[in-house]
Specification:
Structural class: alpha/beta
Strand order of the largest sheet: 3-2-1-4-5-6
CATH topology: Rossmann fold
Shape: globular
Number of helices: 5
Strand content: 15-25%
CATH architecture: 3-Layer(aba) Sandwich
Radius of gyration: 15 Å
Distance between the termini: 9 Å
Number of domains: 1
Helix content: 40-55%
Number of strands: 6
Largest sheet: 6 strands, mixed
CATH class: Alpha Beta
Amino acid sequence: MAIYVDADACPVKSEVETVGTRHRVQIFVVSNGGLRPSQNPLVETVIVPDGPDVADMWIADRAGPGDVVITGDIPLAAKCVAAGAQVLKHDGEALTAANVGNALATRDLMTDLRAADPFRQGGGKGFTKADRSRFLDALERAMRKAAQA
């Protein structure tokens, strides 16, 4: 059992470390660099080479049943769900075999809409305390479910 964190732009790294430490689970924080390594012996900082989706491929090659993956990247989530891992977005939303297909379709649609209207303004919604709380609750549930796998 391990936790894999797609760490670039991840707002819940400290929450993952807290929960993972409580469960005494190895945590892999994967990025292209620029992160301060944790002093926690359960946390391994993995720096992958620059390049598109290199961190995603590193995680996807390793995650499987009994593991938990934290990512906002929907294609990575789909690969990890297919491999049997529990997957959570940063706001605590679980991505599963039942909903990851819809998430991929929505992502593709939004990409097409942004490409069709280069003047389209706006971005994602802000990350709130409620999102952080939902994430912590969801991570606890995912850890229990992964332990049963």
